[in-house]
Each structure stands twice: as structure tokens, then as C-alpha cells.
Amino acid sequence: MPKSTLITGCTGQDGSFLAELLLLKGYTVYGLVRRLSSPNVTNIEQVRDRIHLLDGDMTDQSSILTAVKESKPDEIYNLAAQSFVATSFRQPVLTADVDGLGVIRLLEAAKELVPDARIYQASTSELFGLVKETPQNEHTPFHPRSPYGVAKLFAFWACANYREAYGMHVSNGILFNHESERRGLEFLTRKVTHGVARIAKGKWDHIELGNMEAKRDWGYAPEYVEAMWRMLQQPKPDDYVIATGESHSVREFVELAFREVGIEDWETYVRTDPKHIRPAEVYTLCGDSSKAKRILGWQAKTKMPQLVKIMVKADLERVGA
Ligand code: NAP
Ligand code: F7E
Asked: Which end of the chain is less congested by CB atoms within 10 angstroms, N or C?
């Protein structure tokens, strides 16, 4: 019998890579998708006919129960979220509902219907926020800096609580920023590589950014979904930091992306606009994933300069001549 898995957020960056990985591993893959007037299936186009798509929404308990009942999953990957930090300041209630309460809804459904299922929760380096030490590991205290971070903190502890209270196999992956050619256009890396490609092809004359000094630990998404899977193959549930261990500024990312298309005087093409500055910023992040290396045998291979190359190349191809 092939194992069954339910992925929430399967149309997103990570969900689409994870669906591909689990199909390769022989799983029967179910994906929870919310109804949209124009379906957002670009990321899963190539595997759409091999995934069983189930209607549902993280704000709707009954649809989550139905999806769990229909998929009878051995493994659940909860990737669905309002994942854009900037939007969480404008839509804090929605973010709390989807990213926070949504996790309780899913845990409750699993507790009732598939208590032995193994569950992955998409936790985040945004929990560390105003960092207390560098690099950050599984023992670093949390200090979230956005409604997104706060909602994810609630979810993190909800998972730990269901593990302790009901003995459920629930693991938190504390993933640092990971990007790819499938990243949403609003996120910094993709906004930059998409903009650079358009500037290189003469279609745009500038891009507008916010805080150029913020630092992130940026890795490559396909490698990070492998870590999610490895967490659920462990006999015991646990929490793991997943990161590259390198921290780079927005400025460095922008400079490298322009250099990739042969532009050295990049500052000519970049304007800063205060509308992209957040009410509270996470200034710097750098993860220590030595626990994941030790227990999961996982290590990041692609570092930021290589990531820039991959993303710029993909965007140049997309923009075309
Ligand atoms: P993403 O591309 O924004 O994907 C989010 C997914 O959630 C999409 O499939 C989206 O569906 C779905 N979704 C949003 N609201 C929903 C709702 N109310 N009900 C059901 N589905 C809903 O995010 P990602 O980068 O793949 O990240 C995956 C997860 O990891 C998220 O939980 C994110 O918060 C977390 N995370 C990401 C990173 C990172 O650097 N990428 C780091 C740490 C943690 P639509 O297609 O309909 O919008
Ligand atoms: O911002 C700065 C911005 O929006 C990165 C999500 O996947 O990773 C992601 O959250 C940095 C921030 O990602 C612009 O202020 C400057 O310091 O790409 P981002 P994020 O906020 O780090 C974590 C781990 C998640 O969990 C989240 O789901 O870049 N920045 N100028 C800008 N950012 C954006 N988006 N746009 C700008 O113009």
C-alpha cells in the first residue's frame, strides 16, 4: 500500500516542490486547495493530474475535517499560510486565523480522525525576530516582530502542546528563508530577480525597495522540502532549525543579481521607497542547523550566490527576448 499524504498549501512554492518529491517517493498525494475565482495552479501544473486536489480552507473546520477524512493521511504537511510578513501588518486578523487558529483546526481534525498520522508544521525563523543570539538554534528564545511571527508562534506552541498532551507525532521545522524560481513576486529575492531581468531586457528602468540593510539566511527551496520529509521519517517528533548558516544583506543580494546581467552601476536602477519599510523589522537572521545535520543528515548545498544565479537565469528565460 503506498503511503498517503495530505499537503496544505500545495499550490505554493514549498507545497509544489514537496508534492513532486513525495510523488517521486511513491506517495499518494492529496492537496488542500482553496477555491479562487482564477485557480492558482502554475506551480503544480506539471503534476496536477497526479495530485488529488481537495477543496478546503484553513479558516473552515468542516472542510479540513472532510479533507482529512477523504485522504486518510499517514503524513500531513501543513504549509498553508498567509505567508507574506508585510501583509500580516495590514491583515493581522486573517493572518492569525489562517496561520494560528488554522493549525489548531488541523490538529483537532488529525486527533479525531488519524491520531497516529505524522504531522509537519511550517514554522519559521520569524519566531526569532529581534534575535537574542547569533546564530539562532532550537534553544534560542523567541521574539516575533510581526502579526505573522506572532501567529506562527501560537502555532509552534500548539504543535508542541498536542505532542505533549496527546502523544501525537508533530514536528516543527523552523525554516529560515528559502527561495526559488517559484517564489511569489512580492518577496524580496524574486522581486529583485524579476526586476533585474526586466531591466536587462529594457522593459523596466528601475525597481523600488525598502530596507537595504536587513540580513537574511537565504537557501534553496527544493532542498528544504527534503528536510521536511526527513523530519517525519524520525521515530520521534521534534523541532529542527533548517538554514544555510550564512547571512547576507538585501544590498548584497541586489548587487549580485545586477552583476549576473552585467550591470555594475546597479544603484542607478534602484530606488528606495518608505512604503516598503515595515512597522517593525527583523534586522538580521542566521541559522545554526547542526541538529538537522546530526539527526536528519541534512545540510544546505546551495548558498546565496548560487541561488541568485538560479533565480536570475529563470527570470531572464521567462521575460524572453
Ligand atoms: P506560499 O508560496 O505563500 O504558499 C502558501 C500556500 O498557502 C499557498 O498554496 C496558498 O494558496 C495557501 N493558503 C493561503 N491561505 C490559505 C487558506 N486560508 N486556506 C488554505 N490554503 C491557504 O508559501 P511558501 O513560501 O511555500 O511557504 C510554505 C509555508 O512555510 C508557509 O506556511 C510559510 O509561512 C512557511 N515558511 C516559509 C518560508 C520561506 O522562506 N518560504 C520560511 C519559513 C516558513 P493559494 O495558492 O490559494 O494562495
Ligand atoms: O523580506 C526586506 C524586508 O518579504 C526579506 C517569508 O517567506 O521568510 C519570508 O519573510 C527582507 C525583509 O521575506 C523589500 O524588509 C527590503 O527584511 O522576502 P521578504 P521575510 O519577511 O524575511 C520567512 C522566514 C517566512 O517565514 C515568511 O513566510 O527584505 N526588503 N525591500 C523587502 N522585502 C520585500 N518583500 N519587498 C521589498 O521591496
From this structure: C
Options 3.30.390.30, 3.40.50.720, 1.10.10.10, 3.40.190.290; CATH of 4-178+219-242: 3.40.50.720
Beta bridge partners, 239, equal: 172
Q: Active-site residue 126, yes or no?
A: yes
CATH architecture of 186-217+249-283+304-319: Alpha-Beta Complex (3.90)
In the structure grid, which three cell numbers stand for residue 139, read together?
Answer: 534553544
Cell 528536510 belongs to residue: 227
Q: Is 188 in the pocket of ligand 2 (CB under 6 A)?
A: yes
pTM of the entire predicted model: 0.98
In the block, which residue shows the cell 504543535? Answer: 159
Rounded to an integer, what distance in angstroms lies between the CA atom of residue 229 and that of residue 237?
12
Residue nearest to atom 33 of ligand 1 (CA): 83
Q: What are the boundaries of each domain within the chain?
A: 4-178+219-242, 186-217+249-283+304-319
Report the nearest atom of ligand 2 relative to the CA of 125.
Answer: 24
**pLDDT tens sequence across 224-279:** 999 999 999 999 999 999 999 999 999 999 999 999 999 999 999 999 999 999 99
